[in-house]
Amino acid sequence: MDIDVWIKGLGSKFTYVAEEQGKIIGFGELEANGHIGRFYCHKDFQRKGIGKKILEQLESKAKALGIEKLFTEASSTAKPFFGSQNFIVVKQQEVERRGQKLINFIIEKKI
To answer: Which of 67, 79, 9, 77 has the alpha carbon at shortest distance from 38?
Structure first.
């Protein structure tokens, strides 16, 4: 992973960070086209409303920008969370990352 490219990419998106006692416990990133590029919640803070609060911020920003649909590629483990937030699966796909084939799901939500 090229950390400089990753950091530069963060600067062109709307990023929301959740932290507790100075520790990052989650973050989400919204692109101007409605794509949620990165979305993460620390394992010790899952199922505690952190992801939902981050997603609410992303949706609020999207609405302010006039975006009508959010979409992302969700892993098998993230899919249930997004489903609980009214995202629907558009299709399942297989992608290759660092030589490994992974299954993920293109999901979307009209806002």
So the answer is: 9
